[in-house]
Specification:
365 residues, alpha/beta, Rossmann fold, 6-stranded parallel β-sheet, 13 strands, 40% helix
């Protein structure tokens, strides 16, 4: 069986959709299924450090020549189908909510992973034109797809409500898995080097994710300022204009462009993890944090309870006092902290790589 996979985000995105794709593909390769051949289709080679994270066992495929940006977009959305036919691809998996037009007509089975429909749930966080483009792609992909993977039950419900109940029998909830290096131990020398490299404080709460309005980092900034003076907040992620709206705090440390190997050490140095987002499709940083042995505090209102499980703590997205109290109960020395960490690590076993990869492989078959 020849399986084609949309690899644009795999070679271009350092986090988020890129991490999802690289982790899934590597886990599929590790299954060692000799009856399944993986071909990764990307509009260009992208970033060497990302592409090289894919282990041996899959072949990258690109459009002929060196097309301009517009031709790359056209190739990915339509003309790629002729390449899939040429390569005898039987199943094509769109990893980031998109499938090319004409896939069904060409007789190729299509699977699409839908991560979230935030652009429809909360269009206020997007440019109006982007919401129209994203919605068109969403509906077009539903028409092309033989099957839909929702990464959470929350996303499944959003697809049914905003896309149509007629797709109910075509949707499977298959959770994201997390990269295994987050759950491994980090040597003290490595932690010390990373602390020095990024000038990290001795005690801090960690947040990971794009720093934008929807992620609601301001709540965590205000809450940390209510904690003991030696507790700081370290936020790792791409920065947007929202940074200028954050409350001023000498205890806030913003980092961007942090490679995965350093991020694992930063997780290991933190005391707790905070994820105050107002709306998510899943929230993979929560799983990474739990795997790294951190207690998690997140916000209610979307799917974060589904990601973090019953032993993480949750507060309303505008509850500064509640957030401060939950973080205080998650710091080292707090009563019940170690028990919550242990129970949470047991909970996230359902997200471990091979279980997810086996579910996806069975769906391909």
């Amino acid at each position: 069986m020849i399986v084609g996979i949309d690899a644009k985000r795999i070679v271009r995105n350092g986090t988020g959709l890129g991490s999802y794709g690289r982790t899934l593909v590597n886990d599929l390769i590790r299954l060692g299924d000799s009856d399944m051949q993986l071909r990764l289709y990307a509009p260009d080679e992208g970033r060497d450090e990302l592409r090289s994270q894919i282990i041996e066992g899959a072949e990258f495929c690109y459009p002929k020549g060196h097309p301009a940006a517009l031709r790359k977009a056209w190739w990915r959305s339509r003309s790629i189908v002729s390449d899939l036919v040429r390569d005898s691809v039987e199943v094509y998996h769109g990893l980031s909510g998109e499938l090319p037009m004409g896939l069904r007509k060409a007789g190729i089975r299509g699977i699409v992973t839908i991560h979230d429909l935030i652009f429809m749930r909360h269009p206020e966080y997007y440019h109006w034109l982007d919401t129209k483009i994203y919605e068109w792609k969403f509906r077009q992909s539903l028409r092309e797809a033989d099957h839909i993977i929702a990464i959470s039950e929350r996303t499944r419900q959003d697809i049914l409500e905003l896309g149509g109940e007629e797709y109910a029998d075509r949707i499977s909830v298959i959770y994201q898995s997390f990269a295994p290096h987050f759950s491994g131990s980090v040597q003290d020398e490595r932690k010390a080097a990373v602390r020095e490299k990024y000038k990290l404080p001795q005690r801090f709460v960690l947040n990971v994710g794009t720093i934008e309005a929807r992620k609601n980092l301001a709540l965590a900034v205000e809450a940390v300022d209510l904690l003991p003076q030696d507790i700081h907040l370290v936020a790792v992620g791409r920065q947007t204009d929202y940074v200028r709206q954050l409350p001023h705090s000498e205890r806030l440390h913003l980092l961007s462009g942090v490679p995965d190997q350093d991020l694992a050490a930063i997780y290991a140095l933190a005391e707790a993890f905070v994820y105050p987002s107002r709306y998510e499709g899943f929230g993979i940083p929560i799983i990474e944090a739990i795997a790294a042995g951190l207690p998690v505090v997140a916000c209610t209102g979307s799917c974060l309870e589904e990601a973090g499980g019953p032993h993480s703590r949750y507060v309303g997205p505008d509850d500064v006092i509640g957030m401060a109290e939950a973080l205080k109960m998650s710091l080292r020395g707090a009563r019940g902290r170690q028990e919550r960490i242990l129970r949470s690590r047991e909970y996230i076993q359902k997200f471990e790589g091979n279980d997810v990869a086996r579910q996806v492989a069975e769906l391909y078959k």
